[in-house]
Amino acid sequence: MTQFQPGQTTLVEAVQAFTAPPSEIFPQRDGTSYVRWAYKFSVVTDGLYSRKSVTLQFGPDQRLIRLVDSTNLLIEPWLRTKLLTPPQYPEPWQAGGRFGS
User: Fold this and answer.
1) How far apart are the C-alpha atoms of 56 and 37, rounded to whole Å?
2) Residue 80 pairs with which residues in a beta bridge?
3) Which of 56, 21, 65 is nearest to 39 (CA)?
4) Which of 32, 77, 90, 100 has the most crowded Cβ, counting Cβ within 10 A?
Protein backbone atom coordinates (compact mmCIF):
# COMPACT_ATOMS: atom_id res chain seq x y z
CA MET A 1 0.00 0.00 0.00
CA THR A 2 3.00 2.31 0.14
CA GLN A 3 2.51 3.16 -3.54
CA PHE A 4 -1.15 4.19 -3.04
CA GLN A 5 -1.84 7.89 -3.60
CA PRO A 6 -5.23 9.44 -2.78
CA GLY A 7 -6.62 11.08 -5.89
CA GLN A 8 -4.32 9.06 -8.17
CA THR A 9 -4.45 5.32 -7.43
CA THR A 10 -7.29 3.60 -9.31
CA LEU A 11 -9.41 0.66 -8.26
CA VAL A 12 -7.77 -1.45 -10.97
CA GLU A 13 -4.33 -0.61 -9.56
CA ALA A 14 -5.50 -1.53 -6.04
CA VAL A 15 -6.77 -4.91 -7.29
CA GLN A 16 -3.39 -5.51 -8.92
CA ALA A 17 -1.52 -4.47 -5.76
CA PHE A 18 -3.58 -6.80 -3.55
CA THR A 19 -3.39 -9.56 -6.23
CA ALA A 20 -7.07 -10.34 -5.58
CA PRO A 21 -10.46 -8.91 -6.38
CA PRO A 22 -12.26 -7.16 -3.52
CA SER A 23 -14.30 -9.27 -1.11
CA GLU A 24 -17.11 -6.71 -1.09
CA ILE A 25 -18.06 -3.47 -2.81
CA PHE A 26 -20.55 -1.11 -1.18
CA PRO A 27 -21.81 1.52 -3.67
CA GLN A 28 -22.90 4.80 -2.09
CA ARG A 29 -25.60 7.23 -3.26
CA ASP A 30 -23.03 9.94 -3.95
CA GLY A 31 -21.30 7.75 -6.55
CA THR A 32 -18.42 6.70 -4.31
CA SER A 33 -17.83 3.10 -3.23
CA TYR A 34 -16.42 1.45 -0.15
CA VAL A 35 -14.27 -1.45 -1.33
CA ARG A 36 -13.16 -4.15 1.12
CA TRP A 37 -10.47 -6.80 0.85
CA ALA A 38 -10.48 -9.48 3.53
CA TYR A 39 -8.27 -12.47 4.28
CA LYS A 40 -9.14 -15.09 6.87
CA PHE A 41 -7.12 -18.11 7.92
CA SER A 42 -7.85 -20.61 10.64
CA VAL A 43 -6.59 -23.96 11.81
CA VAL A 44 -9.20 -25.26 14.20
CA THR A 45 -7.12 -28.14 15.54
CA ASP A 46 -4.40 -25.75 16.73
CA GLY A 47 -6.73 -22.90 17.57
CA LEU A 48 -4.85 -20.62 15.17
CA TYR A 49 -6.92 -17.85 13.67
CA SER A 50 -5.88 -14.85 11.60
CA ARG A 51 -7.91 -12.11 9.98
CA LYS A 52 -6.76 -9.13 7.94
CA SER A 53 -8.88 -6.61 6.12
CA VAL A 54 -8.77 -3.18 4.56
CA THR A 55 -11.59 -0.93 3.37
CA LEU A 56 -10.84 1.89 0.94
CA GLN A 57 -13.14 4.56 -0.44
CA PHE A 58 -13.05 5.21 -4.19
CA GLY A 59 -14.68 8.09 -6.03
CA PRO A 60 -17.07 7.96 -8.99
CA ASP A 61 -13.97 8.08 -11.22
CA GLN A 62 -12.67 4.94 -9.40
CA ARG A 63 -9.74 6.83 -7.90
CA LEU A 64 -8.76 6.34 -4.28
CA ILE A 65 -10.22 8.87 -1.88
CA ARG A 66 -9.04 7.51 1.47
CA LEU A 67 -8.44 4.60 3.80
CA VAL A 68 -11.66 3.90 5.73
CA ASP A 69 -10.64 1.01 8.00
CA SER A 70 -8.02 -1.69 8.46
CA THR A 71 -7.71 -4.71 10.73
CA ASN A 72 -4.41 -6.38 11.64
CA LEU A 73 -2.41 -4.59 8.95
CA LEU A 74 0.90 -3.04 9.86
CA ILE A 75 0.77 0.40 8.31
CA GLU A 76 3.50 2.93 9.05
CA PRO A 77 2.15 6.07 10.77
CA TRP A 78 3.18 8.35 7.89
CA LEU A 79 1.40 6.09 5.39
CA ARG A 80 -1.73 5.82 7.54
CA THR A 81 -1.89 9.63 7.77
CA LYS A 82 -1.45 9.96 4.00
CA LEU A 83 -4.18 7.40 3.27
CA LEU A 84 -6.62 8.79 5.84
CA THR A 85 -6.43 12.26 4.32
CA PRO A 86 -8.68 12.78 1.31
CA PRO A 87 -7.01 14.35 -1.74
CA GLN A 88 -7.16 18.13 -1.91
CA TYR A 89 -8.49 19.46 -5.19
CA PRO A 90 -7.92 23.14 -5.98
CA GLU A 91 -10.93 25.40 -6.27
CA PRO A 92 -11.61 26.38 -9.92
CA TRP A 93 -10.35 29.92 -9.24
CA GLN A 94 -7.08 28.50 -7.85
CA ALA A 95 -6.50 26.29 -10.88
CA GLY A 96 -6.07 29.28 -13.20
CA GLY A 97 -9.73 29.49 -14.16
CA ARG A 98 -11.47 32.85 -14.34
CA PHE A 99 -14.55 33.25 -12.18
CA GLY A 100 -17.54 34.42 -14.18
CA SER A 101 -15.86 34.09 -17.56
Assistant:
1) 9
2) none
3) 21
4) 32
What's the order of all strands across the beta sheet hosting 33-43? 24-27, 33-43, 48-58, 64-71
Distance CA(50)–CA(35), nearest Å, equals 20
What is the model's pTM? 0.77
Query: Measured between alpha carbons, how far is 81 from 92 in angstroms, rounded to an integer?
Result: 26
- Integer CA distances (angstroms), 45 to 29, 40, 41, 48, in order: 44, 16, 13, 8
Q: Quick: pLDDT tens for 2-52.
A: 899 999 999 999 999 999 999 999 999 999 999 999 987 777 766 777 788
What number is the average pLDDT over the span 88-94?
Answer: 56
